[in-house]
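I'll show a record.
***
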Amino acid sequence: MIRRLIRRLARDERGISAVEFALLAPVLIAFYLGMSEFCQGYMAQKRMGHAASAVADLVAQEDVITRTEVDDIFDIGSLIMKPFSASTLKQRVSGVTRTGNKVKVDWSRGDGLTALVKDSEITIPADLLSDGESLIVAEATYDYDSPADYLMPGLTRFRHVYYLRPRISDKVVCSNC
């Protein structure tokens, strides 16, 4: 009798779809949640990059800029981060000039990041500037904390640096930075 029962159960295929679903559903749900978390982090990184490039672009369109105008431009960078919180967005914009083999800071202003010291040397990518040329250097960092923490537990720090040439004049001057 037991053998007959085992043979009958072995041939019964009525619940096989439910078993397959029970085995695959957790894997597919975890994959979906992981992809949604990854997309959120990627979107936060892209928005932070757009904020940094917008700050550099807006500063590069000026010939003379003030400390207050730079602060207003930083506020625009923070608005670009929406719907993400801008509380961990840190920004810095600097005007630099190459003199001989050295690239020196003409002025710098930071929002969360410390401003660079005037006349200090910085390193930029090779062959970006010729002697006497000037650049706007915009930097941004963003600490992203995933709301779900499935794949990215803890903070993930994103960082971007943009280099733009002044558009109106040879050099952007900050009158009171």
Q: What stands out?
A: The CA atoms of residues 105 and 119 lie 5 Å apart. Helices lie at 2-11, 16-60, 67-80. The first strand starts at residue 64 and ends at 65. The two ends are 93 Å apart (CA to CA).
